[in-house]
Structure formats: structure tokens, C-alpha cells
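Quick question about two entries, pasted in order.
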Amino acid sequence: MPATPASPAVLIAKAEGLCRAKDYKGALKIINEALVLAPNNATALVDRGDIKDDIGHTERSIPHYNAAIAMHPDYEYAYPTKSGTLTDLGQPPHPTT
């Protein structure tokens, strides 16, 4: 019997666990799998931005936060995460994005 693919929620949880263990390469691989299954998942998009930031690609994290905000403006976690990253980059955070 073929294996059932993991749900996006399971993959996101696994990627977040790998991040806590500082296995960012593994986390990025898993979060990318989650986004193949659910490309509009705000949590996965923000997580991918966080992973990019964690591996030192801070500027590359912003488009993922922007995508999460554009698709899900009610996803409150994306705003402070993006603002903190902009601050880290020496840019003023926009109050609503």
C-alpha cells in the first residue's frame, strides 16, 4: 500500500520542530513540501520567511511575509514578524504591513 502524503499541518509542525532543533536545512525542505501541498498557507509562508532569516538570508524572508499578508491580511502573526525583520535590516517597519 502506498504511503499517504502528510498533510500541510503535519509538515508545518515537523518543520517547526526542526527549526527548534536548529536543523534549518531540514526545516526548509519540509516547509517547501508543505507549500507544494498548500501554496497559500499563511503559517507555512511565514515559517519559510523565518527559516530564511535564521539561515542568514534575512532580505529573502520579506517576500514570504508579504505573500502571507497579501493572501491572509487577518493573519496577525505575519505583521510583527515582518516588522521585526525590517528593523533588523535597518528599515522602518510600516505600521500595517
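Here is the second entry:
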Amino acid sequence: MLIVSAVMPVKPAFVEAFSIAAKVCAEQTRREAGNISYTICRNSEDSCQFITFEEWENADAEAAHMQSTHLKNFIGEIRTYLGGAPTMRRYKVTGNP
């Protein structure tokens, strides 16, 4: 299993537009083969910061997601909404307690 997080700083004027676009992207992503979960969160202390938590069956499923039309459309749309570059991290699940 692969866990991916992406922290995205959003300009204050675009928070609502970003939220709508992210919801659409999440709904489409959850239907992708190999997606286990896709959650979008808004920072409770900084309302302009969002983070996604994604669970994928494997790296190939996540790689296919990165090439999906809806993700490319989402990235193109939010480019002007962002207040800085997103920070992505990928984690391999090594075990459960």
C-alpha cells in the first residue's frame, strides 16, 4: 500500500473555488482502479491550507492517477488558486500495530 499526502496553500480569494474543484477531483479519484481512499482536509488553524491524504493499492495505481485526465484538469484549474507550490510526500506502509 502507498500513502500520499499533498499540502496545498491556497490564496484567500480562491478558497471557495479551490474547495469546489477539489471535491470534484476527489469524487473522480475515488472511482479509479487501485484507489483505496482520497480525503481532502482543511487546516483548522490556517483556513487557506488544504491537505490530501490518498491511499493506493500500489505505486502503479498512483502513477496512473497522476496521468488521469481529471487530475490534469484539476491541476490546470487550481494553478491560479495556489499561494505557493504544493508539497507532496509518498509513504510505503511497512506494517500495522
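Reply: The two ends are 15 Å apart (CA to CA). The mean pLDDT is 95. Hope that helps.
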